Amino acid sequence: MAERHEIESHLKGETLVRKGLRHRADGTPTLRLVPDLNVVKIGGHGLIDYGSQVVFPVMQEIGELSQEHKLMVVTGGGVRVRHILDIGIDLGMPTGVLAELAGKISEQNAEIVTLLLSKWGGTRVKTGELLDLPTLLHLKLLPVIHGTPPYGLYEHPPEAGLIPPHRTDTGALLMAEVLGARSCILVKNVDGLFTEDPRVNPKAELIEEITVSELIKRDMEDMVLERKMLYLLRDMVNVREIRIVNGHKPGNIGRAIRGEKVGSVITV
User: How many CB atoms neighbour CB 216 within 10 A?
Assistant: First the structure.
């Protein structure tokens, strides 16, 4: 057998799949590109689909907050994503194709939000430009990016059904992690995480704080955030919590950024 050509390194001869190798980098600090960044996810279903009456006050709040804090706005898709997924599933489209289609909707919302935030330096950022963020923030711009992770046709198959498991909530969390952000805030149309959907059961209780392990154990029928986020948060290095607030109530985003008690917090 011919001798392997090697280069000297700490991973010399490794297969990169050996079980013990996973712990080699434990404790090694990773570079936090924007450690004072607040990632604010604006839901399509929870906010943008309500139109000007809800969206304009939220844009005003975010714009004003951006003058004092470093923000990145991440957009969801909303009702149009649900429509295209319904059609795609009915036509038998694979999960990867569904992910491609859904991503185009959150991109449309990113364009809209960028224009609405132009007064405060709103700037459209594409997925491949994410590492330009430190420069954009240094220039006092307010970056806006769509939330669908760029798995596209390579989207992971879900445990059941066809709906892509990595959607815009998940995308916001993944971007917050790679940028080393200080916070990941999901702006929704309810006061936070409830034991049940409060619109279906008005007696549902608000969960103000819970660990990700506890929430996974509950195996709830419905949640206000994507289930995939829980398993990702559990393994995060930089982001150690997710906060969920009601964007229909003025001032909640600012309270979340300042670390005040508002909404729900899911911690590692």
Answer: 14
